[in-house]
Amino acid sequence: MSLNVVMFYLLSATILLFALLTVTSRRILRAAVYLLFVLIGTAGLYFLLDYQFLAAVQLAIYAGGIVILIIFSILLTSHISHRFKRPTLPQVLMGGSVALAGSALVLYVLMNHSFLPAEVKGEVTSMTEIGTQLMSTGKNGFVLPFELISILLLAAMVVAIIIAKKENQNIGKS
Amino acid sequence: MIQGIPIYHFLVVSTLMFFIGICGFIIRHNLITMLMSVELILNSVNINFVVFNRYLFPDQLQGHFFTLFIVGIAAAEVSVAIALIINIYRRFNHIEVEKVSQLRF
């Protein structure tokens, strides 16, 4: 058993364990920290698959940016010592049965499908290749979605500022 | 691809993660924890894209770029959602979904 295989099972176990803890923890700040571990484990899987750039993006944006944003909003909106009520039995039954039925269906379909293995051998993707494809307008070029997502991010930033801005007249009077 | 690990094992991990996210989305009542469940779902889809790219089409980069764009869209989604949550907290003083029954008053 090579080190890669051991590492894969270790990472998968961590991811699944912390994902379960994320949705069941009764303290909200702990749930956010468990989510951070799930995202770091996913970055580890990307490293295993030899996509170093993607793993770096995952660490920087998800683990660095999104989790910090979520923790900030938790600190702004709820008490640290607050604990959630236990979910009621019908809800647990409904959520659990939906998850069980869905995963059983998907796993059944997956296991009965035979994937065609690749003929070519994959090698480590170079940074030059990623940059060239991201910026090319020809075949396999991704310049249009790249530009679109820059506009989307700008719009999201403006919208977030406008929505979260205090309306000073109304708040002051009431 | 990794020697000794079939593609199915990756897909099982991402499937289980997806449905853990769905389950959390159903049983949670707090807006922020629901947002965290959505993050789990997006993340599991990302794993699927990357694994299909690496195992089935290792000479191309489409899955890689899709994952990159999903990460960017997730960042935009989280920033707008958190702005909305903070606005809801200002009006109602809590962020429990079941008690927020009006959009405007």
What descriptive keywords fit this protein?
heterodimer, A: 174 residues, mainly alpha, Four Helix Bundle (Hemerythrin (Met), subunit A), 7 helices, B: 105 residues, 3 helices
Q: Major sheet of chain A, described briefly?
A: none
Please provide the ordered H/E string of secondary-structure elements of chain A. Answer: HHHHHHH
By CATH, the architecture of the largest domain in chain A is named: Up-down Bundle
Q: Provide the structure class of chain A.
A: mainly alpha
Count of alpha/pi helices of chain A: 7
Radius of gyration of chain A: 22 Å
Total domains of chain A, how many?
2
Oligomer: heterodimer
Order of helices and strands of chain B: HHH
Largest interface: A-B, 86 and 72 residues
Any idea what the shape of chain A is?
Answer: globular
β-strand percent of chain B reads under 5%
Strand content of chain A: under 5%
Low-confidence stretches of chain A: none
Task: Report Rg of chain B.
Answer: 18 Å
Q: For the record, what is the CATH homologous superfamily label of the largest domain in chain A? A: NADH-ubiquinone/plastoquinone oxidoreductase chain 6, subunit NuoJ
**Mean residue pLDDT of chain A:** 88
Largest sheet of chain B: none
